[in-house]
Amino acid sequence: TGMFTYDPGFLSTAATQSAITYIDGDKGELLYRGYPIEQLALHCDFMETCHLLLYADLPTASQKEQFSKLVTNHTMVNEQMQFFLRGFRRDAHPMAVLTGLVGALSSFYHDSTDINNPQHREISAIRLIAKMPTLVAMAYKYSMGQPYMYPQNRLSYAGNFLHMMFGTPCEPYQVSPVLEHALDRIFILHADHEQNASTSTVRLCGSSGTNPFAAIAAGVACLWGPAHGGANEAALNMLHDIQAQGGVEKIGEFIRQVKDKNSGVKLMGFGHRVYKNYDPRAKLMQETCNQVLAELGLEKDPLFKLAKALEKIALEDDYFVQRKLYPNVDFYSGIVQRAIGIPVKLFTGVFALARTVGWIAQLNEMIGDPEYKIGRPRQLFTGAERRDVPPLDQR
Ligand code: CMC
């Protein structure tokens, strides 16, 4: 049994080579295909970011137009999806619904199920990126008992999502450029993050040769957990709880609970496996948070104030300093999403929508690698030694 290296949680094992995303955790640096996240957030939109992740470089103006057009050609989903959706309880968690909907896409595209065929992968990539906003918005509308809104291809990727979320047949949604831009930035910041749990899940799932939709559905399922994508929802719920108990004055007491290892309480939106410095995405998210709250006249938003006070106190506390725990992207993204009007339960769905391109880029990279093999971890066996089955009356 000593043949294999034991590395629970992959703390020191590289499961793959990759040329997509680079993180320097000590410096707090994040690069997509070499470009710093700060520059991408400032100069590019999500469609350009998708092109960059999928095709390894930023698009020219005409490539961008072509790519965006291709995506908008696929924004609708098959009408049958509505009937599938109706089987869910209206109060189902949107991530439960989304896991099902994305998995169900595999049943519609029989022309592109072969993950080993580059053309099949390409069209599946476009379909997934195009349809995720539609599915997330459908899950929301269903939970509200409102009619679904068809996508509007004249709108931007983020603008169309806002339209499908908040428009109704009797009142079209007036897309606010500030909110559209903020949402686009959320998408860019969440687009990829190298070999995190959900991405590794997509790779492992795809390595068996399953179809691309099934592999992405596995990623959605993994992202749901509170230690991963579910942290944005958990972070906002945590802020709500502290606020309900008295707000800023209760931070000290809350931090004491977090430091008590028996309490089981964590500071959600803090800490990261790779970043041992400020998560660069959290900085950009905080900036966006300021812009959105100003646009909406919510500068005095008590939750944002609470979040800033909590961050300040935590960053000065020995417990967090010694463990190098800093805010991660999810600390502020919930406040932005909430200000936009996205319900807390849908936060992780928005994350999934944005991460889809990263999952696909990573999946394509793996399948395109001539050395790729089915992912098959080994184990160190700790169970019973060989023994004989006793007859039922002698057990
Ligand atoms: N609050 C309190 N203590 C923490 C926290 C936190 N948020 N994060 C880590 N610690 C402590 C942890 O208890 C441990 O202490 P000790 O050394 O005394 O046992 C030490 O810091 C090291 O943490 P770890 O759990 O061994 O680190 P990890 O790399 O296994 O976990 C993490 C990383 C992100 C799961 C963890 O920091 C966490 O649970 N954070 C809260 C959830 C969260 O915000 N997740 C979002 C991550 S970023 C976006 C995404 O991936 O989706």
TrEMBL record:
GO molecular function: citrate synthase activity
Catalytic activity: oxaloacetate + acetyl-CoA + H2O = citrate + CoA + H(+)
PROSITE patterns reported for this sequence: CITRATE_SYNTHASE
Acyltransferase among keywords: yes
Active site location: 272, 330
GO biological process: tricarboxylic acid cycle
Pathway: Carbohydrate metabolism; tricarboxylic acid cycle; isocitrate from oxaloacetate: step 1/2
GO cellular component, one term: cytoplasm
Keywords recorded for this protein, A-Z: Acyltransferase, Transferase, Tricarboxylic acid cycle
Record family assignment: Belongs to the citrate synthase family.
Name of the protein in its database record: Citrate synthase
Originating species: Verminephrobacter eiseniae (strain EF01-2)
